[in-house]
Fold these 2 entries.
Entry 1:
Amino acid sequence: MISYIRCKNVDYSSTRSETFYDIQLNIKGKKNIDESFKDYIAKETLDGDNKYDAGEHGLQDAEKGVIFSAFPPVLHLHLMRFQYDPITDCSVKFNDRFEFYEKISLDSYLQEQDPNNPANYTLHAVLVHSGDNHGGHYVVFINPRGDGKWCKFDDDVVSRCTKQEAIEHNYGGHDEDMNMTVKHCTNAYMLVYIRDSELHNVLQEVTDADIPSELADRLAEEKRMEQVRRKERNEAHLYMTINVLLEDSFDGHQGNDLYDPERPLFRVFKIKKMALVSEMMDMFADAFKR
């Protein structure tokens, strides 16, 4: 995005290009996503005691604002439902009704439009919070293939859902504004949009070549360790544990027992219950190199 200050009466301006990871949209007093974007790029007038210092031109009346120079393939919109309230000196959650859409066009918020690549976006995910500023529950609705078929991810439960459940039911607002089965404290706080021209790239099938080798190795090791643990659990009843106490534990011990039972220095061995005594002795000899 580009932040700018333009003087009204002289030919002088200041601009600064900035990158963004997400766009924080104000929802308080805004009906929908379009009103929030218009508020985001709204111009602020610098005049009176707040005139802009234009260097050699002195203090000047000016306009201050931001405009977008480009939008990314994947766009994250942060709906500012949680904000600081100076009156109560704490964070509060705004449950106001705020409408967003499955399809949006952001060309009008760009500094220069590209007719060959319009900034048209399709909604991919809706992150939802139920509760207040002190806590609550989080779920996410995802449109995996960008075809309008939605899934609900609620902890470890994944289920199919309707488009209405994913979008309209998460506008927020009071009960009388919505279906009575939906609590007014349940609403969207983060939206993920994918540019239409990039849908085929972003949502393409993941192949083995896309997975980093170190991640594949880590997953393979985790599976191997899980198999070892499963085998140990299944065979645990076949084994017994032997604690071996060496003479080092006796040396210098003063007390009623031969060693300090509070801090025993055991060597722990596992052996099959059906093993012979000779096999146990061979195991000890190998371990103690004797």
Entry 2:
Amino acid sequence: MDNNQEYFMSYEDLEIHRLMLEDTSRTEMYRKVINDNRKYFNNKVIMDVGCGTGILSLFCAQVGAKKVYAVEASNIANIAKEIVKENNFVDIIEVIHSKVEDVVLPNNEKVDAIISEWMGFYLLHEGMLDSVLAARDKFLKKDGEMFPESAAIYVAPCSVPSLYQKWNNFNGTSMSAFAKYLRMGKNNKPEIMQVQSEDLLAPDVSMCWINLKEDKISDLDSFSIEHVTGVSKNGKYQGLCLWFDCHFPVICKDNTQAILSTSPRSPVTHWKQTVILLPEEQELEEGEPIAFQLDMTRDKMNSRRYNLQVSLLDPETVEHSIPCSCHMTKCILIKALVLQQAEQTMNEIKIKEDQSDILKEEDIDDDEEMEA
């Protein structure tokens, strides 16, 4: 069995679909995007890539889509057909049991929009985005829309007390040695878990931004970031936390940008967060610098998986951002200089504004004298 067959068979597990459907943040965001922006779907031809049970296709049909091609490669397509019939949308939604790469539409028809929930853990796990971009190149009109249209991966250093803290006092005993070896055994595979926002040790940084309307499949092969930051509070540096945001090309009725976020600061989703655990924790104080390089590379043997590699760097040898929040002497001096220049600029602006006000008053006085 090749990797693609194994992947599609995994999606015949109904528990996976139940988990996705019951993910309120995920499902309600897609429904809100569609309901609040009906002009993109009403009387339009839509393609749903990897439709699963067909929930997104149903949402599109409910707001008046003219035609929905619901493409699903796994055998869950047979259940999707029953669900479409159950909702009386057989004339609107056509479930196509096929890989989207093999689909041929009647008369080489082009679609007005492509919608898909393709995201995996840390965004790219499972590699389904490849199929969405292939569908875009093959079926989307030149002025067509992608839902979502862009996505970004974020990284932040973190603590994971939920994994290790309990072992310090476990049923009246200290099991810290066990926790140490447990940590060492976990650093070969990312942990999928919910990270609390208070366990983030520093501001997050964007690792990559993906434009679904323009990027090529080859653009997804590798991403890398080298970053240094100052710790924002005292804590145990135990790993790097990864999450993603997806942006839709619309504004919702409450006048907010339509964003599906899996951040620790957002409501929990079934994706949770991905944590790359360090083999040894570091006790850090506020302002202490952290430097790391994170490489995300597509696996050569299985294109649906990525290899994540973290290198801990010496903050002394890495270029810092300006201004930097760490407490290294050079960063403190640069930050003070930047603040001084900003204050000087504000003072200069205020002086010019005061001079302008004085000139305006003199002009008013001259006008009053002339009138007199």
